[in-house]
Amino acid sequence: MSVQLKVDDRDTGEVTQNVLGRDTERRDARQKVTGRATYAAEIRPEGLVHGALVRAPGMGRVELANRAEVEAMPGVLMVLSDARMIRNAAQGAAGEAPVQGVETAAYVGQPVALVVAESFEAAAHAARTLTVTCEGASNEIDPEKVEIAEDDTDETAQGDLEAALREARHEIDRTYTTPSMHSAAMEPHAALAEWDGARLTVRASLQMLRYNRAEIADCLGIDTENVRLLSPFVGGGFGSKLGISAEAVAAALAARELGRPVRVVQHRRSVFEVNTRRSETTQRIRLGADAEGRLDAIGHEALVSNLPEEDFSEPVLQGTHFAYAARNRLLVQRTARIHRPAAGSVRAPGEAVGITAFEIAMDELADEVGIDPVELRLANIPEKDPESDVPFSSHMLAETLHDGAARFGWADRPRAARQRREGEWWIGSGMAACFRVNMMMPAEARVRLTADGAIVETDMTDIGTGSYSILGQIAAEALGLTAEGVEVRLGDTDFPPGSGSGGSFGAASTGTAVWLACAEIRTALAGRMDCEPGELTLREGTVQCGNRSRPLAELLNGETLTGHGEVEPGKAEDKVRQATFGACFAEVAVSDVTGETRLRRMVGSFAAGRILNPRTARSQAQGGMIWGTGMALTEALLHDRRDGHVVNRDLAEYHLPVHADIPEMDIALLEESDPWAGPLHAKGIGELGICGSGAAVINAIHNACGVRVRDLPATPDRVLGGLS
Amino acid sequence: MRPFDFTRPDDLEGACAAGFTEGATFIGGGTNLIDLMKLEVMAPAHVVDVTRLGLDRIEDEGDGLNIGATVRNADLAADPRVRRRYPVLSRALLAGASGQLRNRATTAGNLLQRTRCPYFQDRDSACNKRTPGAGCAALGGEVRNHAILGTSEHCIALHPSDMAVAMRALDAEIEVRDPEGGMRSMDLDHFYRLPRDTPHIETRLEPGDLITSVRLPAPKGDRQIYRKVRDRASYAFALVSVAAVLRMEGGKIAHAAVAFGGIGTEPWRDIEVDAMLTGETPSDSLFDKAGEVLVQGADVQDGTAFKVPLVQRVLKDVLWRAVA
Ligand SMILES: Cc1cc2nc3c(=O)[nH]c(=O)nc-3n(C[C@H](O)[C@H](O)[C@H](O)COP(=O)(O)OP(=O)(O)OC[C@H]3O[C@@H](n4cnc5c(N)ncnc54)[C@H](O)[C@@H]3O)c2cc1C
């Protein structure tokens, strides 16, 4: 039995909020800070051996010149170069093998072999000793230099952009660039593979197990049922662990051949080139507006890149489709096929870079029109989805703009640039709106209820976001238990397949499956009470129906009640446009001497449906705002201009913001409930904070010192170039 | 990492003997050496730990200080004598790396840390410093944390230290013990070597030479400033840094020692710049001229052109602060 829901319509039910919606500490917090949460690479089974990936130093046909010599090195067990090894990580939710094969290297840094040895040190040393030569290819690595195939072009046009721009009272036409970026999760990608007959178990660091399981099976050519994945703890993913990566396949192949458990941990330097990067983008944005700033024309053309044969194209325009009204629109997406490391989803693919550039353009337009940037946004909020004409499921952009402006004290800001100075520091403020699509993914979960409490099981992952806590809260709410009364088991493909973590859909999708599983249990209990499920109240071990009440233990009579919930997206996606909204306000100081920018404060106000746990939601919003700050000020993956390889492959030179870069952040999560988002009325919050915060910083730099940075990140040299 | 022998002698003689064996390298805090060993950019056969030799003291010496080679960066920065009389050194140390790294890093190790040039760290790229004669992949590559002064056609690698920049402005001397037990001292001014056609030889140390301490003479100026420009607020190497030690007499600059980080193949100091400031009355035009003299003959690439105006602006700012 199971309760299934296809989300076709608005939900009319009520959700009580006792445990749900309460600010609750993360269940795994203590385990993590005391080192008791075990990650993939931390398990050491009997007979464990170690593998190290070998990278291609060039492109073209691969030769392992001194293979025999390496195989003879002390401790070395094998040099594996197998046609089933993968070229790069699988894309999110692929569910099948990515491009396989190691005979040729498509990009510099591609893993082309695995060396396995008795110790980690021996494996690493042998891997470095293996001489790899690559010949016969000098592939293009510059996205601006290749011709774009028709298949790689996507266009949406409405009205007549050119004509509207000609007639517009105010027009801007600007080009922005963002560099390649990387997830740079703390835990490097790691896998520990072990075979038992035909069955393979991989302890891995992955985000979406139901798809990952199928990907590994497809790579190896075995049945999905024969693969078990375990990822109870994942040290951050941000998209880079959506699909399986090179280490998991290589570990499985080596373990099969050696008959021993094999562990492969990617070197930090390989993390930056084997796992998908966020594509660099070039974005031309044209806007036409009337005297009041009302948009009549929106042009947004994006150039992104990926390796040949990769489906993914950084969806830069995703937010532009619905952000603002304008009758004349031209949105063009082009994908250059080049030979830099593969591009894929990185936290908030699309809006992270697309909305950032667009919201800088909006700031430039506000300047041009001469109106307040907040007013400009308010003047252009669409009544319905501007392209498909369906209504929004809920839309609270205006509220977030007002709320954020009030918290920040926006009214006190000087409109013109270069008005405030403290010593050598120019002080300025900027703002931007935030937009992110809302998605739901198919998910299943099982809940078992006994007199001692409930157990939730799904292969959903917790990548540091709080899934353990939230799923526990949902079950507790539905079954009238305390949060402690629910045990949550995740990250094991022996459990029903959850949605996985990605695209901000985890909590709402898998959470709904848990809710439905509980609904099945509630129905069973109602049956035992001889009443309708709607009349049932469960609280602290008692089951109540009208004025009748019985202890839960008595009703269960030693039995276990099991519920199975299953949700999938339905027609709701066509009937309404679902998205999350917000507003970010930033104050920066820019040194007139050095061009250094320091963020002084940031305010974020967000609306993302029902907030299931304010603490974990706030943490996501804050993380997003910090990511936005990094994108604005410091982060750039540098590609060598001759062969495209990633030059800064470590955390010393790939500059994520550090604590000293981030001041206290003021974050508000507005009360909202979206009935189109399923019975929980909750939308995703994991990515929204990135989709605009960076633009607020860039706009603040302009307000501070008059320098308009259009090529991110705004490092001191770029700001300095504009200072007199 | 390649297998290696490890010894931790507890007397100088033993350390120097061990350090003189074939393929031996000393290790202080290991924060640079171990990273490079993991990458096999450095692959010593024998690693000799020098942190148990009693070289971890800071001692008064006349009006100056004698800083043991293994004094940790964090301890040196916090020493009250350093903070009071050599604040430029304290500031430079605190502007470097992170708290964790400074707790481990030693004085000698900091002076001898290798360049952060990414092509040096990448064994798949050509590097004359790593493999003499192999070529330089940085030239024509992604260049940002590279030098504009002291470069050669064989190498544009930057010396990344903050501490050493301050020490140059303080006229530090290096005490060295050779494998036979002989002691000698070298000015920091003559300690490093320009890359020329031998970028793999970075200092005037001979095989087996052990740095025992760094001597600071009495401070020649009471106006000391260290300013570092970087890509993020902490935990980043200098794009440009300036250390200034000045003394004023009757409105004129009586002593000027200015050193620079982020621009040179070694911690940079230009005697011409110091000389033109000395004896002069501070003015915008004087400081502008100093900035011009400093970058004469600068070798800029696409990615390092910004360092010219940046170092000039920072120099001017630092000088005005110092004379104020
Ligand atoms: C992420 C990161 C960020 C950093 N940021 C900065 C920064 O912003 N500014 C900055 O200045 N530095 C920075 N550093 C570098 C740091 O300062 C150096 O790694 C440190 O000072 C080296 O000291 P150590 O004692 O650990 O040296 P070790 O690694 O032990 O040794 C370095 C070298 O010195 C030699 N050596 C050590 N002691 C002696 C001796 N007594 N005699 C002869 N030879 C000796 C060793 O053989 C080796 O070649 C950073 C480092 C890292 C990893």
From TrEMBL, chain B:
* Keyword vocabulary terms for this entry: FAD, Flavoprotein
Q: Which Pfam families match?
A: CO_deh_flav_C, FAD_binding_5
**What residue ranges carry the coiled-coil annotation?**
none
Transmembrane ranges? none
- On the tree of life, the source organism's domain of life is Bacteria
Q: Please name the PROSITE patterns in this protein's record.
A: FAD_PCMH (PS51387)
This protein's name: Putative oxidoreductase subunit
Q: Which organism is it from?
A: Pseudooceanicola batsensis (strain ATCC BAA-863 / DSM 15984 / KCTC 12145 / HTCC2597)
| Taxonomic lineage from the root | Bacteria, Pseudomonadati, Pseudomonadota, Alphaproteobacteria, Rhodobacterales
